[in-house]
Design goal:
The chain has 13 helices and 12 strands. By secondary structure, it is of the alpha/beta class. Bound molecules: pyridoxal-5'-phosphate.
């Protein structure tokens, strides 16, 4: 259970004046994250440079991410975005015998863009969700065959918060001898992730959503047994076993997934990521998830009570924080709510109400009430 929510809220200054319910897009700023970014700025201003200290912050962030998903730090690469992570994978599997790539059509579009740009190497196809229902393991089973190389899917949908049972998906994918690559950008920080228990081969996530950080840094998990067999094509000096050998004539990849590091780390983003993940790692993410289930229930009840159309699952077991409510002119309504100090996130035809562990049911009630008033 999330205790002492008032105390938690004190660390997010914006909550004194505003209701922030936009964690599917950007969560509220925690004071520790601001302090950590300022630490980088002061170090630059006062000491001129501190490569050792700056790199250490990024290494600390790598470790905190590894802890959060129950991986070893050697299984994590530092990348700049999820797009970068997926591109690293797409370009390193070209020598595999199997050529079929399956993508869930509710994945974030960038995943499709990356794989489709390599159609000369792969046979790319999509798997959709059933009408009214949501995709289950059997649907994956029916779409995967002995030529399927990799299945890409998201833990939680960016659009409507639909959440999948990854352990079950992994079981089916592995039964057919394919790899499972998960985009966890929308679940990191709000749903427990255990890559070992779930048996995930590859996972990417950025920090800007529920992980309390900023864009510009993301992480790529590849399980060790697999990483050591791959030859990264998106690479650079940080992916080498000794970046500081300054040997331009040889490529000697680092151990494990670290070989997928590329250029100089995004230092300032790494400072933000270290602090953000340290804040979250103080909690049991299952407690955060429970709190968000409760807020989901409140959102669904409030929205239905006011006659709004919910596009998200209405069952809590396959839904994460985000409740998507149908609004024809969603971007406009997002702006109108913002003018009233209520921060939500629009996508196409929905307003996404996406609370985090610092939100209360009063936040939700007020936001839904104002949303209903604007729509009507
Ligand atoms: C699930 C998901 N994946 C990927 C992205 C985009 O990732 P990036 O910009 O880091 O490539 C987003 C951004 O909203 C997202 O929600």
């Amino acid at each position: 259970m999330i205790n002492n929510i008032n105390k938690i809220r004190e660390s997010f200054p914006i909550l004194k004046n505003k209701i922030q319910l936009s964690s599917c897009s950007q969560s509220a700023m925690h004071l520790d994250v601001k302090d950590s970014i300022n630490k980088y700025m002061s170090s630059w201003e006062e000491n001129g440079m501190d490569w050792g200290g700056w790199m250490q912050a990024c290494e600390n962030a790598r470790l905190e991410f590894a802890k959060m998903i129950n991986a070893d730090r050697s299984e994590i690469a530092i990348v700049s975005s999820v797009s970068h992570g997926v591109s690293s994978i797409a370009t390193s599997l070209t020598d595999q015998k199997r050529k079929k790539v399956l993508i869930a059509d509710f994945d974030f579009p960038t995943v499709g863009h990356v794989w489709l740009s390599h159609q000369d190497q792969y046979d790319v196809s999509f798997i959709g969700r059933n009408e009214g229902d949501f995709i289950d393991a059997k649907a994956y089973h029916d779409h995967i065959d002995e030529e399927t190389l990799i299945v890409n899917t998201s833990h939680v949908s960016f659009y409507d918060g639909f959440k999948q049972d990854l352990k079950e998906v992994a079981r089916v994918v592995h039964e057919k001898g394919a790899y499972l690559s998960v985009d966890a950008y929308q679940s990191l920080g709000q749903c427990p992730i255990d890559v070992k228990e779930m048996d995930i081969d590859i996972l990417t996530a950025g920090l800007q959503k529920y992980a309390l950080g900023i864009p510009g840094i993301a992480f790529l998990y590849i399980k060790k047994e697999l990483a050591d067999t791959l030859t990264p094509k998106i690479t650079g000096w940080f992916g080498q076993s000794n970046p500081f050998a300054f040997d331009i004539k040889h490529v000697e990849y680092g151990e494990g997934t670290k070989r997928f590091d590329s250029g100089t780390f995004p230092m300032i983003n790494g400072f933000a990521a270290e602090a953000a993940l340290k804040v979250l790692n103080q909690y049991d993410i299952a407690d955060i998830e429970d709190h968000l289930k409760h807020l989901s229930q409140v959102t669904i009840e409030e929205a239905e009570g006011r006659g709004l159309t919910i596009k998200s699952p209405k069952t809590l077991h396959n839904k994460a924080s985000n409740t998507a409510i149908y609004v024809e002119n969603a971007s406009e309504v997002e702006g109108q709510l913002k003018d009233q100090g209520i921060i939500v996130s629009a996508r196409n035809d929905v307003i996404r109400i996406a609370p985090h562990f610092y939100n209360t049911k009063d936040d939700i009630k007020l936001a839904v009430k104002e949303l209903a008033r604007l729509i009507n």
